[in-house]
Amino acid sequence: MIFGRILYISDNIAHVENISKDTITADLMNIHVIFEDKDQRILGEIVELNSTEIKIRFLGEYVNNKYINGVIRKPLLSSKIRIINGEELLEIVGTLSDKSIELGTSATYKGFQICPNINSLFSNHLAIFGNSGSGKSCGVSRIVQNIFSNPKTTSINANMFFFDAYGEYKNAFGSINKINPEYNYKFVTTNPTEDTDYLLKIPVNLLTLDDIALLLQASTHSQLPILERSIKYAKIFASDSDEVIKYKNHLIAKALIAILFSNMTTSYKKNEIFKVIEICHTREFNFDSVIPGLGYTRSFSECFEIDSNGNFGESVLITEYILKHIDESIEEIKVPEQSFYTLKGLANALEFTLISEGFQGNQMMYNEAMILQVRLNTIISSKVNNYFDGSKYTSVDEFIKELTKKDNNKAQIVNINLEDIDDAYAKVIVKIMSKLLFDYAKNLKSRASEPFHLFLEEAHRYIQADTDTFLLGYNIFDRIAKEGRKYGVILDIISQRPVEISDTVIAQCSNFLIFKMTHPKDIKYIEEMLPNISSDVIEKMKVLQPGNCVVFGSAFKIPMICKLDMPNPMPYSTNCNVSSCWSDAGSTKYATTEGNASAVLQSNLNVNNM
Fold it and tell me: pLDDT category, 22, cuts 50, 70, 90?
């Protein structure tokens, strides 16, 4: 016998007499017990004990053999107290079926698997937190491997996107087709090194004003109309229909006339006019266009030769020619459907916008526009330009379907590797991709018929309290956190620094897997963000062994410590084996015999003294 009578009940704790004189009571911490009388079974957890008293915290009760969280009526003082039995424990930890997955084993009850319901766990946003080295990446790998290796069900229509900050998951998921030939893994990367790798390519025509504002790090609202105009011009200039050419001639002519009648010097006017023609030209307006005069002709460029008086030699001729192409009756043309353009085309359109819209006269707006132009040209001249495709028109549906396809088969796991680019661009690419997936899901005829799971490794790099809401009116991750579940777009955030993640996103997470955490700020943040988390759970997460995590949320009947099996294969997430590297280096590069060691030393000394 261990449990005596209930001494008294205070708040949510029962103080029970300890009648055991054996040291076995030392193994009772965190064990679950049942308070039982004729019409009630209440579940409790041992939270403290000494030689005379055991403190048991109430968790919930069993009604018709089903566990329900929370206790409405406290147990009677005469209730019988016993350790939970196997049937009651299975009701809590679950059993493997076609509706559940094996998460791991109970660290408290040996031999019992923790098997949460698939819908409860994966139909809600999930947060996975833990210190570096606590087992997050291995844990995520094991969970996903368990999903696809579940003998009770198949996951052919899964859509799991891993935004991989360090290329960790390629090894862990690369061979899932060995589990089932219909399972496929696709590795999309900014730095392909193998034949099976796919280069990341985002169609430029799918970038909205918001996307381009983020890409160019716009910071003021006055920059948005400039970008909006530039995008419109880029789409128009990419078309060659008769209507578009007429409209382009009208725009070019207006821009040229504005320059001709400005108070700039003649040489500066010439430079600006030639700049317009260089970035936007038609058959009627290019350097070799023939300008007819009375009995002679001139090329467009010849009309702007400067005479001895400092004026254009053919100013009258060129002015008349330009004015013929201005048609004030032309209304704003409708942007051609299915138009496409490159980032270089956008840069040309931006430069044309600066000239044609007269931004030179407003120094502040011109400076803000020039910042955008410099950033855009920086991207074009860098490797980031390779990740944006402007060679053809692509719809959102076509892009998503192509993204989830590998060799004409469906890829259930798409690993997007971003380890090769700077954080600033990686963040924007993750936001753009997430927004495209969200937009695709929102437009499905049958809502939430294609679930998308976005696993964000090192989520604190992407999900932050940025200026997006100030500039655009929303942050895509906040929006997905609040609206994504009803469209089947689910966030699975993985981070070692939850304190750096957006409050809105964490507040919308329903399930948590928390590995060892020791940083006071992170622990305090979790306590404040999750008011229902108990102090006992907080204490447990501080002392967890690697590979163990505290699991709680809507998918779990009670908070539990779960031990996850090591993944097979492993992700690339292990620490550097320093001693092995040192010894290998020493045995190969610097292997010397005792006889020539002094010679090597003397050689080094001679070099240092030179």
Answer: low
